[in-house]
Amino acid sequence: MSSVSVPTQVLTILRSRKSTYYFYAFNALCLVWAVVSIEVILIWNHIQGVYTIRTTGQLIPFVIGVTSLLSLMQKISVGRASLARTEILMVSRRLICKWHALLNVALRL
Description:
Number of strands: 0
Number of helices: 3
């Protein structure tokens, strides 16, 4: 019997890099499916005048979409900067620990 619980194993699998790529691909596929299905409905029903941003019904979703995209891009850039900062701090800490150990050895001689 394994000492690791099933939810922990599932979380480990879901956090893997490969499953992250599958998740991104699935999200992109869902987005493409939604856009294509809406466009097909518009074409099949012969709806006209919805391909410009002159009306409020088109302008408001456009503004919300652009704002959401900019917010997402800002969060991604902040997240990457935070990750880089964390990696730099971890490397610096390791170097300080190594120098401290070397200094202790040198002082004992």
